[in-house]
Design brief:
With about 200 residues, this protein is α/β, with parallel strands linked by helices. It has a single domain, classed as P-loop containing nucleotide triphosphate hydrolases (Rossmann fold, 3-Layer(aba) Sandwich). The protein contains nine helices and five strands; from the N terminus they run βαβαααβαβαααβα. It has a five-stranded parallel beta sheet, sandwiched between helices. The two termini are about 20 Å apart.
Length: about 200
């Protein structure tokens, strides 16, 4: 099994790259954003989720961990999972690690797409013009960056200490970034599955 986390700030292209990786390696693409939007539209917790997302706040850990756990445990014929937008803090990462230990698996590599706040904001505002997403506006973007910096960035150290981080310049074009991700996956040591690039 191959389990990957695509990590990075808002607008770094996590969703795009996760989709490409999922298709290439026959992995399930688990997007916390998609799971939340689905619940927001059809689930009983929709109003609560809308309130958090529209203000740029992270949805409470208890809720997103529950949604992710159900998705991970769902039977699938794929060769693993690529996570997009999850985990977002240490508590979520610890919960995910425990879940995979129960399955006798692990997160094999964490791809960190590096992108400046300025470049990311440009991308998100551009996306907002076509996506219609209520959270793609300047006020919410600034708040999302504050939340990212305070809650999510410490995950870099968490995964770095486990030897799982591969840093990739997220400002490059989609194809170049994807090629670099493929190189990172190819170079995973088959014994301990640590990236060597």
């Amino acid at each position: 099994m191959l389990n990957i986390v695509i990590f990075g700030p808002p607008g770094a292209g996590k969703g795009t790259q996760a989709s490409l990786v999922a298709k290439k390696y026959n992995l399930r693409h688990l997007s916390s954003g998609d799971l939340l939007r689905l619940e927001r539209e059809n689930g009983e917790l929709g109003d609560k989720i809308k309130k958090y997302q529209d203000s740029g706040q992270l949805v409470p850990d208890q809720l997103i961990i529950k949604l992710i756990k159900a998705a991970v445990l769902k039977k699938s014929s794929t060769a693993g999972i690529v996570f997009d937008g999850y985990p977002r803090n240490i508590k979520q990462a610890s919960s995910l690690k425990k879940l995979f230990q129960e399955k006798r698996e692990e997160i094999d590599v964490v791809i960190n797409l590096k992108l400046s706040a300025e470049k990311a904001a440009q991308r998100i505002l551009l996306r907002g013009q076509t996506s219609g997403r209520s959270d793609d506006n300047k006020k919410v973007i600034l708040n999302r960056f504050r939340v990212y910096k305070s809650q999510t960035a410490p995950l870099l150290e968490y995964y770095q200490n486990q030897g799982k981080i591969v840093n990739i310049d997220g400002s490059l074009d989609v194809e170049t970034v994807f090629n670099k991700i493929q190189s990172a996956i190819t170079s995973l040591d088959t014994v301990n599955k640590k990236p060597h690039i």
